[in-house]
Amino acid sequence: MTSRVRKVVFLVAGGMLALLLVWGLAGLPHFGAAHAVDGTMLNQVSVRERHITDVVTAVNFDYRGFDTVGEEFIFFAAVLGVALLLRPQSGEGSGHHNDFATGRAVPPTSDALRVLGLGLTPPTVLFAFYIVAHGHLTPGGGFQGGVILATGVLLIYLAGELDDLHGLYTERALERSEAIGAGGFVAVGLLGVAAGSAFLENVLPLGQLGSVFSAGMVPLINLCVGLEIAAGLVLLMTTFLHQTIVLRRLVRTRRTTTDASP
Amino acid sequence: MRFLPYGVAIWLFMVGLYGIVTSRNLVHQIISLSVVQASTYVLLMTVGFRTGAAAPVFADIPTSRAAVDPVVQALSLTDVVVGATVSALLLAIAVQIHKKTGTLDPEDLRGAPDL
Q1: Closest-CA residue of chain A to B43
Q2: Which domains can be identified in chain B, with CATH numbers?
Q3: How many CB pairs under 8 A join A and B?
Q4: CB contact under 8 A, B2 and A30
Q5: Terminal CA-to-CA distance of chain A, rounded, Å?
Q6: What does the domain layout of chain A look like in residue ranges?
Q7: Does position A103 have pLDDT exceeding 70, yes or no?
Q8: Which positions ≥6 away from A256 have C-beta within 8 Å?
């Protein structure tokens, strides 16, 4: 199929799909007129029932907690897949990282970037912990805080050398943190089973509404998720950086190009 | 105005799909997929929005105050996480394809030897 034929086929089929979408979505309540029964009910009960002021977190880690376990393991599996896909292949090994265009060694990090990176890292890490710890009170939680924490680690890389992160890559610290985070969520969920209740059913005291130590198991789960997301994202970043900067083809093999094929 | 956000979701979906179909670069194709996913965020937010309602965070507002649907917001968090992981996996595959074949153009990959 040539690209022209494919474009024509897409325009016909896509036009019909768009019409179908317009027809379907036109049947939904108008923008601003939503009347979600379950959402309204959750807004009314979750503050009193779970001592959580952020209802989105209450849905994610309590009412819909089991789904979030699945979501967390989707992330886990994807990180595993990337680490597996980008592992050193046969004939590859660590090489000197040279500038691609000139072949010279990569120049050292500039002082401005170093100062800015190191200066921004502590507030970023502090902010990440704040977001994780207050997930049940204000917008935030393990997923959001974990991403911010990973940004802090990326700033360390920007301010220094790749070797600073290389220790993390080789020492398996990230894999361990990620596994502990993923397993910790399930372990907290099993507390409910151990207490004779259901999986992820809250068994811890609910605490005083609005305090950091409230909402039962939700802050604990957020801590586990934050650890897993941060470790997983740093693992992703170090894997990609290792792949593009460190790994080199050691044995010169003939590149298979497809230019000759019709 | 009453249909505009739904229209934006449909537009993003179709534009991303067009990018996937006509793309000549795998990285561009993956970003087009992210655009398709972005349409689902818009759709979820639209479905749950109520005019004049507050965010479903009762840290500083009374629980009697009307708030938007928290369920679709929680769903879009799941959506974002899954979208990011799918992009990471696809980019890793693109890196390996480029290493093995020297090209990122899907057209050139036609009839390529086993990767």
Answers
A1: A25
A2: 4-101 (1.10.287)
A3: 179
A4: yes
A5: 13
A6: 54-86+108-249
A7: no
A8: B100, B101, B102, B112, B113
